[in-house]
Amino acid sequence: MAEVMAEVMLGFAAGKNIQAAARFKTPEFWEDDSQPTWNWGIYNYRFKRRTIKELANEYVDISLREQGSQSVASLVHTGYLEGAKAQRELDE
Fold first, then answer.
1. 29 shares a domain with 59
2. How many domains does the chain have?
3. Tens place of pLDDT for every residue, the chain, 92 residues?
4. Are residues 11 and 41 in the same domain?
5. Separation CA 51–CA 37 (nearest Å)
6. Beta-carbon count within 10 A of 2 CB
7. Rounded CA gap, 19 and 22, in Å?
8. Which domain does 42 fall in, by range?
């Protein structure tokens, strides 16, 4: 737990977006937290998750630079599939 806490806090210090969820709420409702209090007894904290669309767009941008000859439609499809896989891994 201490490693996770440190990772999230250091990520926030480096500019990553953070979300918080009150521990007593069921189901957990994650909200953006631009000024976390780091009260780990009451809240859980995590990095804000990127949507599948954001992951796919990032993949397409990188791939277009690296593989200029591949079609955009092909890159979008591949990026969407990889983004969906990444989102499932985050959710586990």
1. no
2. 2
3. 889 999 999 999 999 999 999 988 877 789 999 999 999 999 999 999 888 877 777 776 666 566 655 555 565 556 655 666 656 666 65
4. yes
5. 25
6. 7
7. 10
8. 2-47
Single-letter amino acid code for the residue at 49:
R
Cis peptide leading into residue 36 (ω within 30°): no
Residues 69, 40: one domain? no
- Same-domain check for residues 37 and 58: no
Q: Are residues 22 and 59 in the same domain?
A: no
Residues 46, 50, 51, 52, CA torsion sign: negative
- Total number of residues shown for the chain: 92
CB-count exposure of residue 6 (10 Å: 0-12, 13-18, 19+): exposed
The tokens describing 11, both together, are 């990520």
Q: Which residues contact 72 (CB under 8 A, 6 or more apart)?
A: 60, 64
